[in-house]
């Protein structure tokens, strides 16, 4: 939880000529009688120590943040298998993962205390989002924090592919001197086709133009381009006009194998394909065939349909049947899912996701949840010590609000907000002047309704 800002300690620069309104606000900042309300630190009614399970080399800053807030944190550097999670998850209220740990329906059934899931990465396809929502568990991620890291990796791959850099470097490491220019190109003046013009694609667009590339992009929605980039009307148009094609789309039913035999045939002869998005977006056997035939001049692949669960594990044909064939191809850059693996990206991801988890556990806010209605209320302040916060996750069905409001009717409801998403709805309410005995009775009444999924009281 963030520390409240002491307004009186903030220095502000002033212009040479100050107006009366500037004087007014400056004088207010100097007035020690002004009441600056501070947020009250909330705790679960049951006063049970919250336990978090953190996996997969998540930022140590995030781990330190959780511990600094009083949570019990168990941190493991590797992913856990489904069986391991089923065995351990039952004692934890929150879990933080990256891309290798899979939160399946079976894991969720074993997670009897679980309140929240944090994906310390962009994607959330490693979590059964609908099953988590039905269990009353919001899932948070960091969709934008590693955008720059991925965009820079793509720029490096453009240059490395066009100069056959990896092949020349490998040859020299094996003692072979092979200085040549045949098939090596500058990227200036070439056309880059970006599939998916979101945060990564748009940042990449700006960097690419600075290198002198012409930029085309294709997206399922109309988007205002940055710089001189131009949106095209179809994927086939982009493929046929681009010297380099780079993918930046999520894994959805409609994007699985969106680049397969037909699409590869539409690409220019001698062009290059880059995939730093999701492993199932490209039909790898079709890509291998296109590279072997010489239709494509090269490729860079950072993500794969199946990936090893830990560093040091083999990337072989047992994992993906075509792995050894792909590894033997010339001018193909293979990297182990490192698109967002920079110190800067991991630090920002750690900050963003840890704050989201802390806001939900401590204040009930679901802003930013990917599978859940987004509900928030302003903080209870320290001058309202008798207020409690009701956080009620329930099935999205008629009559629930009437039941809850009937239960709350003897008390003063200071503020209330609810929203729904699919099968799940979420209500937050702050009520005043509730005795400790009433709190327990009230919680039992609300959690005993037929639509209840999870009810928490924060005091």
Automatic annotation (TrEMBL):
PROSITE patterns associated with the record: D_2_HYDROXYACID_DH_1, D_2_HYDROXYACID_DH_2, D_2_HYDROXYACID_DH_3
Keyword Oxidoreductase: yes
InterPro entries in the cross-refs: ACT-like_dom_sf, D-2-hydroxyacid_DH, D-isomer_2_OHA_DH_cat_dom, D-isomer_DH_CS, D-isomer_DH_CS1, D-isomer_DH_NAD-bd, NAD(P)-bd_dom_sf
Gene3D superfamilies recorded: 3.30.70.260, NAD(P)-binding Rossmann-like Domain
UniProt GO molecular function: (S)-2-hydroxyglutarate dehydrogenase activity; NAD binding; phosphoglycerate dehydrogenase activity
Keywords for the protein's UniProt record, in alphabetical order: Amino-acid biosynthesis, NAD, Oxidoreductase
GO biological process: L-serine biosynthetic process
Domain named D-isomer specific 2-hydroxyacid dehydrogenase NAD-binding: residues: 157-339
Pathway membership, UniProt: Amino-acid biosynthesis
Pfam families associated with the record: 2-Hacid_dh, 2-Hacid_dh_C
Residue ranges annotated for the D-isomer specific 2-hydroxyacid dehydrogenase catalytic domain, each copy included: 53-371
Family label: Belongs to the D-isomer specific 2-hydroxyacid dehydrogenase family.
Name this protein carries in UniProt: Phosphoglycerate dehydrogenase
Organism of this sequence: Laccaria amethystina LaAM-08-1
UniProt lineage: Eukaryota, Fungi, Dikarya, Basidiomycota, Agaricomycotina
């Amino acid at each position: 939880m963030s520390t409240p800002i002491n307004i009186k300690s903030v220095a502000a620069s002033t212009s040479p000529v100050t107006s009366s309104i500037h004087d007014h606000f400056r004088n207010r900042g100097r007035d020690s009688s002004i009441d600056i309300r501070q947020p009250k630190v909330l705790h679960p009614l049951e006063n049970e120590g919250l336990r978090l399970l953190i996996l997969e080399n998540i930022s140590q800053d995030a781990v330190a943040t959780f511990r600094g807030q009083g949570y019990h944190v168990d941190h493991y550097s590797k992913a856990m298998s489904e069986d391991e999670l089923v065995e351990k998850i039952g004692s934890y209220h929150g879990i933080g993962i990256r891309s290798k740990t899979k939160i399946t329906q079976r894991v969720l059934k074993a997670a009897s205390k679980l309140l929240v899931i944090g994906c310390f990465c962009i994607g959330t396809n490693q979590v059964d989002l609908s099953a988590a929502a039905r269990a009353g568990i919001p899932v948070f991620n960091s969709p934008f924090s590693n955008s720059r890291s991925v965009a820079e990796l793509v720029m490096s791959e453009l240059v490395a592919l066009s100069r056959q850099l990896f092949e020349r470097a490998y040859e020299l490491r094996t003692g072979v001197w092979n200085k040549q220019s045949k098939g090596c190109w500058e990227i200036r003046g070439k056309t880059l086709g970006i599939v998916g013009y979101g945060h990564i694609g748009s940042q990449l667009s700006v960097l690419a133009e600075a290198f002198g590339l012409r930029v085309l992009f294709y997206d399922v929605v109309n988007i205002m381009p940055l710089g001189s980039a131009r949106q095209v009307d179809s994927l086939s148009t982009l493929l046929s006009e681009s010297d380099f094609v780079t993918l930046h789309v999520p894994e959805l039913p409609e994007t699985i194998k969106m680049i397969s035999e037909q699409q590869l045939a539409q690409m220019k002869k001698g062009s290059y394909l880059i995939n730093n998005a999701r492993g199932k977006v490209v039909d790898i056997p079709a890509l291998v065939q296109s590279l072997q035939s010489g239709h494509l001049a090269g490729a860079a692949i950072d993500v794969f349909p199946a990936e090893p669960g830990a560093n040091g594990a083999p990337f072989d044909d047992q994992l993906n049947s075509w792995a050894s064939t792909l590894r033997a191809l010339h001018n193909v850059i293979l990297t182990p899912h490192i698109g967002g693996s920079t110190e800067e990206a991991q630090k920002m991801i750690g900050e963003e996701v840890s704050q989201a988890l802390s806001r939900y556990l401590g204040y009930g806010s679901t802003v930013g949840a990917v599978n859940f209605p987004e509900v928030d209320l302003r903080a209870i302040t320290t001058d309202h010590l008798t207020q409690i916060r009701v956080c009620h996750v329930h099935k999205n069905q008629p009559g629930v609000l009437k039941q809850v409001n009937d239960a709350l009717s003897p008390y003063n409801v200071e503020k209330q907000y609810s929203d729904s998403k699919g099968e799940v709805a979420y209500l937050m309410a702050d009520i005043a002047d509730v005795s400790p005995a009433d709190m327990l009775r009230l919680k039992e009444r609300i959690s005993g309704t037929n639509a209840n999924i999870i009810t928490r009281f924060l005091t």
